[in-house]
Amino acid sequence: MKSGRKQPSAFKWLWPGMHVKRWLVLLLVGIVALGLGLAYILRDIYQTWTFPSVAYYVTLQFLGRGWRALLFGAIGVGAVVIAIWQLNRSLLAVFWRPGQEHFVDVVYRYRQRGKGPKVVAIGGGTGLSTLLRGLKQYTTNLTAIVTVADDGGSSGRLRRELGLLPPGDFRNCIAALANDESLTTQLFQYRFPAGADLEGHSFGNLFIAAMASITGNFERAILESSRVLAIQGQILPSTLENVTLCAELQQPQENGGGLHRVAGESRIPTQGWPIERVYLEPDSAPAYPAAVRAILDADLIIVGPGSLYTSILPNLLVADIAQAIRASRALKLYVCNIATQRGETDGFSVEDHLKAIEMHVGPALCPYVLVNNRFVTPGPDVDYDLVRVRDAVPSSYRVLARDLLDPENLWRHEPTKLARALFDFYSAEREAAGSPAQASIES
After folding, report:
1. Number of structural domains, the chain?
2. What CATH number does residue 341 fall under?
3. For residue 245, is it within any domain?
4. By residue range, what is the domain housing residue 35?
């Protein structure tokens, strides 16, 4: 709801969608019923008892009945409003502190986001967490589907030592979707310093590992961690299988030419050779059922942004995930990276990204493609190029070009810009299809 001038926060409780007015009406009905009951008793007493003369003045009988009714009604309404207001402040003091935005604003935005479309975001790494930071401002009906092929760093160590699925990408998503994102991000991303037995481990990974030990399995650990941190949405693995991401790399002639096989997600970008294809071992890993259900029930499916070969494709290579995307009636959109990634997509254009996806999972999995159209020339010391449309994207795709650039990180998407572009696209497509889009959310 928008207004030309700022309204007092108390009146916001009466805005549509707050789920408050119905209870205020019920409260009023209850008070009126109590008042009528008390009035019958007082009327009977008034008619049967003999009162001293002072009662004439206490009961204001020197005033007309209309004036007495108006006066006592005003006193009653004032008392009820003050009581509700002070009770509201007392109860909400547990959750609200001075300096924070008004609690009514928090409730209003939460209610509005709860009416938002069902969005499924598929990927991993920094790209997925960036996307989620923007999306959570518009809807709480969010599902992040995360790759489980990571085998490097802290996640890789926990995977090898404890037999866990890699928690790193889940940690990033939890931090991005948490209500108190700033503090949660600092805590979950904290890495223990050198010289300690925990060197290199992030607190978030250890938190999830501990939760898995307490709850008995990894998926339960993610669910309970999400509840503890009150995240907005859900985070699901693409599969629960212990998969390994493998790649065939094109060796240069000086190394003998031909294809060279590499096993392990973290090793693939370090070779520096063009990637011919990637695949999972085992290649028949079943999808996580809840992930398939979320895809089939979605209004909008977003693939990317993120590392093409090591974050996005590992999800799509789970056959049930790709099949569910094709079967879903949702709008399907691929968010192309702003910059190339060294060791994975060196020299890639938008067309090259789409070609790589088609080679692995077939044509036009996502008919819409969102690309950045604001380019800032990188400095001489950077190791990336900007991703552009080189010639022409195949006609089976519809390209949407927007300014998505983060001015502080010229190789990444800015979360708010990205989310705004996605929801503008969603609203426009729903309106064009004759289906009223969900109400716009004030951010």
Report:
1. 2
2. 3.40.50.10680
3. yes
4. 9-109
Contacts of 236 (CB under 8 A, 6+ apart): 143, 144, 145, 146, 219, 222, 288, 290, 291, 294
Cα gap 101→103, rounded to integer Å: 6
Q: Are residues 71 and 126 in the same domain?
A: no
Q: Angle of helix 181-189 relative to helix 203-215, nearest 10 degrees? A: 90
In a domain, 87, yes or no: yes
Identify which of 356, 285, 354 has the alpha carbon closest to the alpha carbon of residue 319: 285
Evaluate whether residue 39 is within a structural domain.
yes
Residues 267 and 313 in one domain: yes
Asked if pLDDT for residue 199 goes beyond 90, the answer is no
If asked whether residues 71 and 143 sit together in one domain, one would say: no
Q: List pLDDT tens digits, range 356-401.
A: 999 999 999 999 999 999 998 877 778 889 999 998 899 999 999 9
Q: Which residues contact 376 (CB under 8 A, 6 or more apart)?
A: 405, 410
Judged by phi (left if over 0) then psi (alpha if -120 to 50, else beta), residue 310 lies in: alpha
**By the 8 A CB rule, do 375 and 343 touch?**
no
- The domain boundary, picked from 109, 131, 158, lies at 109
21 and 130, same structural domain? no
The 3-class secondary structure across 27-65, one letter per residue, is HHHHHHHHHHHHHHHHHHHHHHCCCCCHHHHHCCCCCCH
Q: Write the pLDDT tens digit of every residue in 268-319.
A: 999 889 999 999 999 999 999 999 999 999 999 999 999 999 999 999 999 9
Q: Are 119 and 177 contacting, i.e. CB atoms less than 8 angstroms apart?
A: no
Quick one: which of 302, 333, 361 has its CA closest to 143?
A: 302
Terminal Cα distance for the chain, rounded: 12
Radius of gyration of the CA atoms of the chain, in A: 29
Give the mean model confidence (pLDDT) for residues 411-415. Answer: 95
- Together in a domain, 417 and 317: yes
User: Residue 146: which H helix or E strand, with range?
Assistant: strand 142-146
Asked whether residue 182 is domain-assigned, the answer is no
Whole-number Å distance between alpha carbons of 386 and 414: 15
Q: Rounded to the nearest 5°, which phi and psi values hold at 235?
A: -125, 125
Kindly report whether the global pTM for this prediction surpasses the value 0.90: no
Residues 250 and 105 in one domain: no
Own/partner pairs for 199-204, CB < 8 Å, 24+ apart?
Answer: 200/153, 200/154, 200/157, 201/154, 201/157, 201/158, 202/154, 202/168, 202/171, 204/167, 204/171, 204/174, 204/175
